[in-house]
Amino acid sequence: MATTTQLIGRDVLLPEQPRILVLHEPQPLPQPPSLTIEEQPARFYRFRYESEIEKDSGRVGGLLLGRSSTDGNKSFVRVRVSGIDPAVHSQLQLTVCTVSAEEKAPHPYYLHGDHCSNGYFQLKKTVDSAFKGSEWEITFNRLAVICVTRKSQMDIERAMELRRANVPSLPDAVESSKVEYTSRSMGSIRLAISLQFTDTRGMHWWQSTVYSDPINDDKQKKSIAVERLNPAEVPLTGGSLVAILTKTPTTGINKTDIKVDLQTLHGQSSAGSASAESTGSLRNFVRSCSIVELKKHLLVVRTPDMTSITRNDRLKCRLTVRSNGFESEDLEIVFFGKECGNVGSADTRDSRKRPRQQT
């Protein structure tokens, strides 16, 4: 191959200098560490007001607890970074901020506590010869979520402007402009947790963001207090409508958040086996009812087929209503075979009488 040059109006061919090509083997991508949430945050939380915190002090009130926390044994949100290799990773950086529960978009509520500044949490970890093991566990035992003034739409927009200016954008984040917040739609958030690492060549890598389960405003914390069933005896074959009357209103509870379980009582014989009393087995069988209708003081469910559970003509079960992580008191319901006849269908009307007004 030759190149052409112009010399006094004539084309002269000059030999081209040979090119020496140095082929470099492509560098493999560094193996990233993995990020997992070991303990989820509590389902319900009272978001703290800005007036309740002292920003310039080391005090943190209204701590965000973990899902398994109890009055006698408090636990906190905990994450774990695994697969850390000092030969590959030189530094880790964990960033946490708030996002909306549904859209996972930036949220105006912000974090306050240890390693928090400008409304978000950030912690760095150097990986060197002194680093022991291959895991890094972080417990958020001094972390609170602060709500903002939301008396008007202007207050919310001002809080969002501060959020955009102060909190870094995380990978896979939804643009905040696509979500329009109101004072009623701000009560549920998630924690967005992202891991960035620097490899031994000095290159920075972002991991995909991991989201916690929703954290709901404590005002949404509602359970169903049951009173009685109608009817309390239904056929084993299933498909019967049962009305569950409630003591407290179910306002604010979604039908999709309710589960109604049936559990057989100990000592009853099951199909294809001897009685529990004779075998010493105390195994319980659990079935779920389907939710048909939800009203202010009424929950209507449809019973499942229970014929595969027992050979007896009658089967006693405990009925439990679960909602938002809470369980109701147990109600007893009896399933009967064909020999026992039919007791009729459910009366879904609330038969409680109102007190007569005295004249």
Describe this structure in words.
This protein is mainly beta. It has two domains: 186 residues, Rel homology domain (RHD), DNA-binding domain (Immunoglobulin-like), CATH 2.60.40; 115 residues, Sandwich (Immunoglobulin-like), CATH 2.60.40.10. 24% of the residues are buried. The strands form five sheets. Strands 16, 17, 18, 19, 20, 21, 22, 23 and 24 form a nine-stranded mixed sheet that branches. Strands 4, 6, 8, 9, 12, 13, 14 and 15 form an eight-stranded mixed sheet that branches. Strands 3-5-10 form a three-stranded antiparallel sheet, with no helix packed on it. Helices cover 5% and strands 37% of the residues. One of its GO terms (molecular function) is DNA-binding transcription factor activity, RNA polymerase II-specific. It comes from Macrostomum lignano. Pfam families: RHD_DNA_bind (PF00554).
Short description:
This protein is mainly β and 359 residues long. It contains 2 helices and 24 strands. The protein has helices at residues 153-166, 276-279; strands spanning 2-7, 10-15, 34-39, 44-45, 78-82, 89-100, 110-113, 116-117, 120-126, 136-139, 143-146, 188-199, 204-206, 210-211, 215-217, 226-230, 233-235, 241-246, 258-264, 286-295, 298-302, 314-323, 326-327, 331-336.
